[in-house]
Design goal:
The complex is a heterodimer of chains A (168) and B (131). Chain A is mainly alpha-helical. Helix content of chain A is 95%, strand content 0%. Chain B folds into two domains: 57 residues; 66 residues, no CATH class. In chain B, 19% of the residues are buried. Classes of the chains: A mainly alpha (168), B alpha+beta (131).
Chain lengths: 168, 131
């Protein structure tokens, strides 16, 4: 074998030396370059995986938050709708109450006005009657003053009859 | 002690009615009575007291006070008939012309009893009935 290498022009010693150098270099590279590089790559990969997991969690939480937000929005809309309906019902009730009170007030005012009018008419009637009575009285008195003797005589004679009858 | 007006009137009436008194004695009674009123500070009420005294004396004698109101002077024969039917001896008569009556007569006896046969009353009754 050695002879063959010699015939081929290959020095065994040199090859062994080079092989030794190669293994030495391999050991050095393995311990000082390859392993730290591999460690860095592993750490980096782990960090990326953690980041990806966190991103995934964040996405899930975001979707949950979004869901909660939508639910809350829906609930708020329902509440708003409910409040709106309640308000409408209350507004209708208030409107009915106000209308009822207004009608009652109107009726009261109308009745009061009718009472006042009736009272006024009665008062006017009384005034007219009193004035007419006064006027008629004056006319009768004036008429009597023209020829009072007969009326005086008639009334006094009646008075005499009453006096005699009642023995005053 | 403060006395009532009616007590003065009754006292005066009783003194006047006691037996028959002469004019001189009556005058003395009147003087004394006025002095009493001055002392009791009742002189301001003398009109009321005298009216009440008059009523008391008339009542004691069985007489009455008659007020006759007419719108105008009545003719004498009519008036005579009225007085004849109304008055007896000792009654006190007062007459008053009251134009408000219009016609007829209104008789008031002792300030209470009233006989109203005036035109004014007739008209008022007429309007009361209409109303």
């Amino acid at each position: 074998m050695i002879e063959l290498f010699e015939k081929l022009g290959i020095e065994v010693g040199l090859i062994i030396g080079q092989a030794f150098n190669f293994f030495l270099l391999l050991i050095v590279v393995t311990f000082f370059v390859y392993k730290p590089l591999l460690r860095v790559i592993k750490e980096r990969r782990r960090e990326i995986e953690i980041g990806l997991e966190k991103a995934k969690e964040a996405e899930i939480r975001l979707s949950e938050i979004d869901k909660i937000g939508k639910e809350k929005l829906k609930r708020a809309e329902e509440e708003a709708s409910h409040i709106l309906k309640d308000s409408e019902v209350k507004a209708k009730l208030i409107e009915q109450e106000v209308r009822k009170r207004s009608e009652e007030k109107y009726r009261e005012l109308l009745e009061e006005a009718q009472r006042q009018l009736k009272k006024q008419l009665e008062e006017n009637e009384k005034i007219v009657f009193a004035e007419s009575a006064s006027l008629i009285r004056k006319i009768i008195m004036k008429t009597v003053e023209i020829e009072p003797g007969e009326i005086d005589e008639a009334l006094v004679n009646k008075a005499i009859q009453v006096i005699k009858k009642e023995s005053l | 002690m403060k006395r009532k007006i009616k007590e003065y009137a009754i006292a005066l009436g009783k003194v006047i009615l006691e037996d028959k008194r002469g004019e001189k004695e009556i005058k003395k009674i009147a003087d004394n009575f006025i002095r009493l009123l001055i002392r009791d500070r009742q002189l301001k009420n003398i009109r009321k007291i005298l009216d009440l005294t008059e009523d008391f004396i008339l009542r004691q004698k069985g007489n009455k006070k008659v007020l006759i109101e007419t719108a105008r002077e009545l003719n004498p024969s009519l008036k005579r008939n009225l007085l004849k039917s109304l008055l007896k001896d000792g009654d006190l008569l007062r007459e008053k012309i009251n134009c408000q009556l219009g016609a007829g007569v209104r008789v008031t006896i002792d300030g209470k009893k009233q006989l109203d046969l005036s035109l004014d009353r007739k008209i008022r009754e007429l309007f009361v009935n209409i109303n």
